[in-house]
Input
Amino acid sequence: MEMIIDFPGGQQVDAHFRGHTIETDQPTTDSAPMPFELFLASIGTCAGIYVLGFCRQRGLPTEGVRILQHNHANAATGLMDRIELEIQVPPTFPEQYHAALIRSAELCKVKKSLEHPPTFNVMTKVVETV
Output
C-alpha cells in the first residue's frame, strides 16, 4: 500500500491513500487530530472492528457496546508504556461471550504490528515536481 504525505499549509500534514485523505495538525492551530492521536485511535478502532465483526457473526447486539481506551505515557519519554482497552458491554450482553470479545480484540492488526514492529527505512529522493 502506498500513501502520499503532503503539506497543505500551516502546521497541517495530510496522508492520501485509496481515495481518502487523513488530515493532521498540531495543537497550535488544532484544525485536525495530531498524528500521534490518530495512531492511538487506530489501536482502539482496529480492536473495535474485530469486536464488531465478532458480534455481527453471532447476531449479537452492539447497542451499548463500546471500548474505553486508556493510554498511559511514560513521564520521562512521553512514549506509551501501557495501553488498556476496556470493552464495555450492557448488563444484557451474554456473559458467555465476554472472554471471546477479548480474544477478538486481541486479533487487531495494529496491536499485532506493535508487538512485532516493522523495520523503517527513511531516505530522500530527488523528483521532478508535478
